[in-house]
Amino acid sequence: MNNSVGSHLLPVFARADLAFERGEGAWLIATNGDRYLDFTSGVAVNALGHAHPHLVAALQAQAAKLWHMSNLFGSPDGERVAARLCAASFADTVFFANSGAEAMECAIKITRKYHAARGNPERYRIITFEGAFHGRTLATLAAGGQEKYLDGFGPKVDGFDQVPFGDLEATKKAIGPQTAGILIEPLQGEGGVREPSHAFLKALRQLCDDHGLLLVFDEVQTGMGRTGELFAYQRIGVTPDVMALAKALGGGFPIGACLATHEAASGMTPGTHGSTFGGNPLAIAAAGAVLDVMLKPDFMKRVQRASVLLKQKLASVVDRHPGVLEQVRGEGLLIGLKAVVPAGDLVAALREEKLLTVGAGDNVVRLLPPLIVTDAEIDDAINRVEQACLRLSPKQAERKAV
Fewest Cβ atoms nearer than 10 Å: which of 26, 37, 84, 297? Predict the structure, then answer.
């Protein structure tokens, strides 16, 4: 509900006047009993929907055994989940954290430590890109570089050189004797569902190889099936040295992970990093259950088919409502609607139609349905988008004025 004088929650969220008590698949049920089609998925977190039976069973079973024992002791279940992530990716090693920001902090530290361990501690700077969002810690805010998030928190953490999104020449010019790596989202989520060209990403890989830099992918939002492959880099054909995951990894339970090759992580020795709760048994059980579902044959093919269907149907809505919508963008089930009207107005109109979406930069509204969304639910969502567009149509507004 809205923050008010009586609330004891720190008022840092502009919360909608809406609260939910339970969820079922792609649906959320509000405290007043109304049903909402959830195309926000906890901002790309609830990838398998709400109350998925396999995830519920895994957490219930683990909750009756062990919640926490600290990283002072062995974690056989953590070892198994890490091995599965490595087998499904480029990585050799995994660090489990609690969030995307923590996974990114680990990625930044790995990148710096890689060079320090080789006798080059001066190589600590990382090239990042305008419009990026890498988290809310002081270091990840500096990496993102957005002034609206940095304002009021003192000097920006040093070590990040930001260049225009997709500008290869600017990237080349930014490389110097202090450069340690290049950090990029393979598809910007918060930045407006903007995708750099595959050629640009391949050029970044080559630059890193040529200059001895680490290529770091922030797949906190794009990872775990969101773009139609388990990881977005697999669709692009460009392999990073380090990759951050979170959001969908636990299907709704907080967990992050930083994946890396042995070489990239070679500077990370005992005592160089840690986490009290990272990789705790409950989080590991959730991540293992998510992998059980996502690694099944044809799961990603279903996501790809759903993506094509959703984008085709949205494109037809855009054609019918040029005064409201301009463009469909994105990959997999990370879809952006570039709006003509203010994006906030579109999010509100969709909420009135009981379809939950989330705004992004560049006047874009993100549609992030759970990866298990059905064709019928996609059709339902399209009808609600249509009704919201009618509500916001300039012609409709003119008729109401008359």
Answer: 297
